[in-house]
Amino acid sequence: MTAIAGEVGYGEEEELELLTHFYVISLASLMESWLLGEIEGTPEELIRFADTLLQDQVRGAKDRLEQPEQRGEEP
If we measure between CA atoms, which residue out of 29, 26, 4, 28 comes closest to residue 16? Predict the structure, then answer.
């Protein structure tokens, strides 16, 4: 999580804890729904989905940080 947090621009301990908590809860809930039969798919498909979701989050955050107005600069 530290590597992901660094890539998306979260540097403070509090932000890292919140980000970790968010993903732990999200992934645990996804697993629970799968075990209860509420969602379909193989374990491999769920892992691929979660990986894509995390990679998209990182890419989106990088794009946000590269925007001049997000860095406090004039466009």
Answer: 4
Cα separation, 64 vs 62, whole angstroms: 5
- Token pair 């769920």: residue: 46
Match 């809930």 to its residue by tokens. 29
pLDDT, one tens digit per residue, over 50-70 is 999 988 887 887 787 778 765
**DSSP states along 9-58:** T--SHHHHHHHHHHHHHHHHHHHHHHHTTSS---HHHHHHHHHHHHHHHH
For the cut 60, the answer to whether the pLDDT of residue 29 exceeds it is yes
